Amino acid sequence: MSTGQAHGSVEVAARVERRWATIAVIIIVGMALLAAFAGIHRATMPQPRVETTDPSRIHLSGEFVESNLGSVLEANGNVTVRAIGQQYSFTPACIVVPVDTPITLRATSADVVHGILVQGTNVNTMLVPGYISEQLMRFTKTGDYLMPCQEFCSFGHEGMWGKIKVIDKTDFANRAKAGGRLSCVGQ
Amino acid sequence: MLVNRKLILAHFWLAFAVFGVALTLGAWQMFIRSPLGTWLSNPELYYRSLTAHGTVMGYVFPTLVAMGFGYAISESALEQRLVGVRWAWTGFWLIVAGSIMAVIPIALGRASVLYTFYPPLIGNIFYYLGVVLVVVGSWIWVALMSINLRIWRKAHPGAPVPLAMFANVAGSYLWAWTAVGAALELLLQIIPVAAGLKNTIDAGLARVFFSWTLHAIVYFWLMPTYIAYYTIVPRAIGGRVYSDSMARISFILFLVVAMPIGMHHTFADPQVGAGFKFIHSAFTALVALPTLLTVFTICASVEIAARLRGGRGLFGWLRALPWDNPMMLALAFSFVMLGFGGAGGLINMSYQLDASIHNTQWITGHFHLIFGGAIVIMYFAIAYDLWPHLTGRELIDVRLIRTQLWLWFIGMVVTTFPWHWVGILGMPRRMAYFDFADPAIAPQALSVIFSAIGGFVLLTSGIMFIVILARGMRAPQVDAGAYRFAVAVHQPATVPVALNTHALWVALMIALTITNYGYPILNLATTGTSVPAVYVGAQ
């Protein structure tokens, strides 16, 4: 092989390599742009804001006192659900919500790190003591959904399963008329 | 020129011994939580086992492999006796001491906090101190790699640092800086509480500190595998490295962008805002770049080997590859698993898609496929390749080696593919048992059974691996010659300073860590959201 050929092959190798590197960069920039577009335009993004709370006082006052836990129909027709996780259960253990309604889930932990996952949906958030998790959700089908704790929270973790009951809109509205906070209890 | 063979063998043997123990625990866990097992009367045993499995597989096993391999690279690539052998042994014994110190409280059920710690859960202090000792032991290795390279540079001013050593030192720096996140969490937050000096801890801050370590540690595990891709595989199958500079660029990219991306583990967390979540997501996309470059360069290097062996045609050259060569098999399996695992990884780091699979069994399936599959199968290949040079004896059972690699690959696919699937169905992680009688959970049962069977295939393969190495210690003696690394098609006579030194890139790594982590950490550290610690094993 002459030196001229050797030089030629170096250039060919470098050119092919550059082409591949360019494709790789385009793929990656494309992915990042897609995520940014979906995040901004479709408002699909992880929890954006940071809110704090004091887990040693949540049972005494504020948003997460026991009487305030459960689902409430807001004036604008949306629903807010407040819940807490503690070793090894959720309160309410069974959350009731209407179908086809924008729902805001606000939750926190009373002790260690827990998580809320609603099977068959992409509702999925961590409960970190000291912080409030907020998640928007909307169910398109009525029925029961399992809601396991998805983070190791010590020896009883395997027993920490909650439930979400999605019911008809009018049923929910009728039950909400009585006021107070709704859960599956009394259903 | 492998002089300190005993040192290297000690690292490998300890690595593979603890690997064997942790693998057995893993297979038991797969079995006991599947419909094949019966519910544990004491679920806490499962979490003990899980803590031990994770601690060994995450902190001890890959660290020892990286260290042993690093010493071997330093001596053979630089052709220079290792300087600081006494320190190297000190590091080794620190890891032995740390592992023992950590495993006792785990076995007693006093530290079932999993290898990810999860404060405000707090376990026995000796568990954390043991982990610290392991890390300190490995930091000695980092220092020795740096010192040995410096000595070589003095003797060879301006010469290109051999690729294997360049990558090895990059990996060691990555580890040194990566470990700082967990070290800060342990030293500033957890250990004071475990020692009883404090009784509150900020769980959100701890999660951010840990994410600093948790992702880049994966790239530290990956380094020996990538070094093998570039510097062992082409030589072993009779090819050349397609491009020396692209290899260096890939390792530099790992060093720089593996670090400032860990918060993609906290997308679902309430203590980090959307802005930093997005930045970390975008940077995570960037870390796919060195892998994409590597896939290209290695495939091209393999094609060179095939064409040198007379391979023809657009794809016909694939047939000309030495498929009976264990290194070829290992590489092919590794790439297939890297492909699937990498695709899964893109979903995990996605700003939007993560929510569908966060903390489900999908995640466990994902990192077992990438780490246990793509990475560890190359650890096997590295051991097979190095063994004759370390023992002076031949590994004669090539057929057994091939079977072992096949079984690992099959086992990993059978284990992790159904594992991903049940994750999509919403099965949560880290549970000692599941109520498969529940109609909502019953559809997951069959997949979990498959995974458990795959776990036993993996255990079989792991035992075979250890048997092959043990038999290799008593095989007929052979002169394996000097340990050599692959050469590039165009072996560089000179290399630009930027591709021959690490300082600039280490500085960039630290700078990016500060920009991507500085504000969230400062913000969390000053908001005062400490919560009461919950001590485990105290009840």
Provide structural commentary:
- The complex is a heterodimer of chains A (187) and B (539).
- Chain A has 187 residues and is α+β, with helices and mostly antiparallel strands.
- Chain A folds into two domains: 45 residues; 127 residues, Immunoglobulin-like (Sandwich).
- Helices cover 26% and strands 30% of the residues of chain A.
- In chain A, the strands form three sheets. In chain A, strands 1, 2, 3, 4, 6 and 9 form a six-stranded mixed beta sheet that branches. Chain A has a three-stranded mixed beta sheet with strand order 5-11-10. A two-stranded antiparallel ribbon of chain A has the order 7-8.
- In chain A, a hairpin with a 5-residue loop joins strand 2 and strand 3.
- Chain A is elongated, with a radius of gyration of 25 Å.
- In chain A, 37% of the residues are buried.
- With 539 residues, chain B is mainly α.
- Chain B has one domain: Cytochrome C Oxidase, Chain A, CATH 1.20.210.10.
- In chain B, the strands form two sheets. A two-stranded parallel sheet of chain B has the order 1-4. Chain B has a two-stranded antiparallel sheet with strand order 2-3.
- Chain B is globular, with a radius of gyration of 23 Å.
- Chain B starts with a helix and ends with a strand.
- The mean pLDDT of chain B is 94.
- At the A-B interface, helix 1, strand 1, strand 8, strand 9 and strand 10 of A face helix 2, helix 6, helix 9, helix 10 and helix 12 of B.
Structural class of chain B: mainly alpha
Question: In sequence order, what are the helices and strands of chain B, one letter per element?
Answer: HHHEHHEHHHHHHHHHHHEE
Fraction of residues of chain A in helices?
Answer: 25-40%
Q: Assembly type of the shown chains?
A: heterodimer
Strand count of chain B: 4
How many individual helices of chain A? Answer: 2
InterPro entries (chain A): CcO_II-like_C (IPR002429), Copper_CuA (IPR001505), Cupredoxin (IPR008972), NosZ/Cyto_c_oxidase_sub2 (IPR051403)
Domain Cytochrome oxidase subunit II copper A binding (chain A): 76-178
Pfam families (chain A): COX2 (PF00116)
Protein name (chain A): Cytochrome C oxidase subunit II
